[in-house]
Amino acid sequence: MALKPVKKGLSPETWASLRPFGLGLQKPNNFAEVFRAIAENRDNLAYAWRILSQGVCDGCALGTSGLRDWTISGLHLCNIRLRLLRLNTMGPLDGSLLADVSALRSKSSAELRALGRLPYPLYRRKGEPGFTRISWDEALDRIALRMCKTPPEKMGFYLTSRGLPNETYYVVQKAVRALGCNNIDNAARICHSPSTVALKESLGVAATTCSYRDLIGTDLVVFLGSNPAVNQPVMMKYLYYAKKAGTQVVCVNPYREPAMERYWVPSDPESAFFGTKIADRFFLVVPGGDAAFLVGVLRHLIEQGWLNEPFIEAHTTGFEAVRAQALGAGWAELERLSGASRQEMLEFALLLAKAKRAVLVWSMGLTQHTRGEEAVQAVINLALSRGYLGREGCGLMPIRGHSGVQGGAEMGAYATVFPGGVPIGPQSAQALSSLWGFSVPDHPGLTATEMLEAGLEVLWSIGGNFLETLPSPAQAEACLARIPLRVHQDIVLSSQMLIEPAEEVFVLPATTRYEIPGGCTETSTERRVIFSPEIPGPRIPEARWEGQVFQDLVGRMCPPERAEKVRFEGTQAVREEIARVVPLYEGIQRLKAKGEAFQYGGPHLCKDGVCPTPDGKARFRPVDFSQEGPPEGAFRLVTRRGKQFNSMVHEPTDPVNGAPRDAVLMSPSDREKLGLKPGQRIWLHNRFGTFAGRVFEAPVRPGSLQVHWPEGNVLLSPKERSSKAKIPAYKEAYVYVHQEPPQSQDPDHLAAGGGGAGLPEV
To answer: Which segments does the entry list as coiled coil (predicted)?
Structure first.
């Protein structure tokens, strides 16, 4: 049976407002973004247009090639991509500004980026006020000499998702392992590593099981802890067509996201003029309560006889243990832990029961908890109970927020897996050593958070900014300041580069995705490997591709016979080796021109319910849905995104909800109980830090607060992370609210409310 067709013509039942273009309503102005991009890139408009029309988007992981994709006809151009465009077209910064960095320390990250591209290699010793220019040869000679004297276990390498392609990830991780080190990690870990763990354990796969087109015309799409309107705006066009096809959209989240309620798709006349009602229903859960909510839903499915029994019998194992857990869970406990009522769980279960097909989508609202793997497993259990696997209009989709992360782990730029997602161990190390022709270490390495705690002697960071992306910025800075040799390779200046050297710091200029000789590839959320050609245009003369830099580094540090194994004539040679080493990527070697792509595994993984597990069956697994409640008088805290990409803040105010960067999103009932006024200055405090903010009334789950990330990182524990994937708990903290600046560092000795106001029970 085919998916439901998209209705032709106008669909007034989906309109969000009769106001033309939503004039006067709180919403992003996507048309203004176009004019802003033109103004920002006016000195390089022709090059900017070639990047947009020929390159693969370096924003989110939905994967447009030029202005088109493989899901729907028509043009795609989101505001995230437009904001990132200037990073690719601007000229070099004035190197004299770096002679004394004291004046730069007070600048925001946005101001540092706006100074321009890094022009040439830079060097700074301890005690020097700033950086001096250095040649590439001298820089690499100095770095190699220091690294030759450093034990491999004392070196660490980190790659961000800043538009990095598969070829960069592959070459860098191979070079690092040629040095005898597995201490390599990338930004994928702080996004979806729990998803990878849970999917691999249950289904034998580690990526979304379906395609974007399955969203359009299916019966139901569920978003759990995910807000694509902000983080993956291209998807909103898919949802616009889904609504026109009669698909229901449901959100499970601690916040009733305004842009998921109604959205204006700028590239479609109907949606641009009238807007589109997106979500049909919101279920507000407490932060971290998703697993308990889903267990309650599953109990209803079991009790009401709404299971897909034939699918469970033919294609799964372990259901009896999950059934026993669900039926043994008390409703009072499930309601307390989830924040949702038994009736709400029944209503959600009924939506699933009526949906013969459904796609379950989730993001960091589920994963960034100490029990992130458990929450993802609860989603998997629910999907398996209804048979939403391996067929059209069905699937499990951990949606990616950045264009490089899906391929990062699959290329092996990970502390715990080799290329292809193969777990590191003696047997897999021996197999990889045979393929590469040199021995590789056979034990897992250090993750990014572990690297900073391990007393490294060398840290090489490609992109990224630990001061903004890791919990407790003060601790991250203190750890970085103790590392004798730091190497930062990026396209622009960042605040972590300015930290006083323990001994020495190198800053190396990198190329953008569009400047890499021979072109490169990206892997999208739907497992589509897409070729992005080199785009002719102006260049930063001394910027170098990271893959080439690491080949040169290995050439200085390793015997010639080993160095030769890490030498590639170009990115085409890299793709040919990827095809040999990573079987899933067979076909990448044939990608050579714009628009060429393939989807590894086909449109649906686990086709017809058959999984790549030893017995071909999916595994149900009971989940630990418990969580500790906050202390008396405290609130649960969640960090969230605003007008930004990753940690790159683009605007001081979020156009979606009007919240400034220091906003503390609070429910109206909590605000009234605390006796606070909208806009009032308050302080959030716990044993990790203090956040000065302003009250911002919003439809969040009572008993919880939300603040922007990365500003809210000062309130997060640097130690709390999930047990298997080791993801930091960005969405799991508690804080006390004060009306005056707290004086004590011990919240247990602080007067609740600071001004004597009572706190709600949570």
So the answer is: none
Separation CA 197–CA 201 (nearest Å): 6
**Residue of 606, 181, 727 lying closest to 412 (CA atoms):** 181
Q: In angstroms, rounded to a whole number, what is the distance separating the alpha carbons of residues 65 and 56?
A: 4
Q: What is the CA angle 386-389-394, rounded to 5?
A: 85
Q: How far apart, in Å, do the first and last CA atoms of the chain sit?
A: 47
SS3 453: helix
Structure tokens belonging to residue 601: 């595994």
> Which of 288, 414, 369 is closest to 721 using CA atoms?
369
Give the model's pLDDT for residue 761: 28
Nearest 10 degrees: Cα torsion 432, 433, 438, 439: 120
The Cβ of residue 303 has, within 10 Å, a number of other Cβ atoms equal to 12
Q: Which two tokens stand for residue 60?
A: 């989110």
DSSP, collapsed to helix, strand or coil, labels residue 732 as coil
Inter-residue contact 250 to 279 (CB < 8 Å): yes
Cβ neighbours around 146 below 10 Å, total: 18
In terms of C-beta density within 10 A (0-12 exposed, 13-18 middle, 19 or more buried), how is residue 561 classed? Answer: exposed
111-185+411-520+533-591 and 633-736 have identical folds:
no
What CATH class does 633-736 carry? mainly beta
| Spans of all domains in the chain | 111-185+411-520+533-591, 633-736
590-624 burial by CB neighbour count: b if 16+ within 10 A, else e?
Answer: ebeebebbbbbbebbbbeebebebeeebbbbbbbe
Q: What is the pLDDT of residue 745?
A: 53
> Is the separation of the CB atoms in 86 and 40 below 8 Å?
yes
Q: How far apart are CA 550 and CA 562, in angstroms?
A: 13
Higher pLDDT, 160 or 589: 589
Question: Residue 186 and residue 411: Cα distance in Å, rounded?
Answer: 11
- For residues 516 and 165, is the Cβ–Cβ distance under 8 A? yes
Kindly tell me the sign of the dihedral angle through the C-alpha atoms of 278, 282, 284, 287.
negative
| 700: DSSP letter | B
pLDDT the model gives residue 753: 36
737 HSE (CA, 13 A, CB side) = 34
Distance CA 5, CA 151 (A): 61
Q: What is the DSSP letter of 607?
A: G
Grade residue 189 by pLDDT with cuts at 50, 70 and 90: confident
Arch. (CATH architecture) of 111-185+411-520+533-591? 3-Layer(aba) Sandwich (3.40)
CB atoms within 10 A of CB 694: 17
CA distance 557 to 546: 17
Give the count of alpha carbons within 13 A of 258, CB side only.
16
pTM across the whole model? 0.95
DSSP string, 34-96: HHHHHHHTGGGHHHHHHHHHHSBPSSSTT--BTTB-SSSSS----HHHHHHHHHHH--B--GG
Query: Is pLDDT of 161 > 70?
Result: no
β-strands 248-253, 220-224 pairing: parallel
* Contact (Cβ atoms closer than 8 angstroms) between residue 729 and residue 741: no
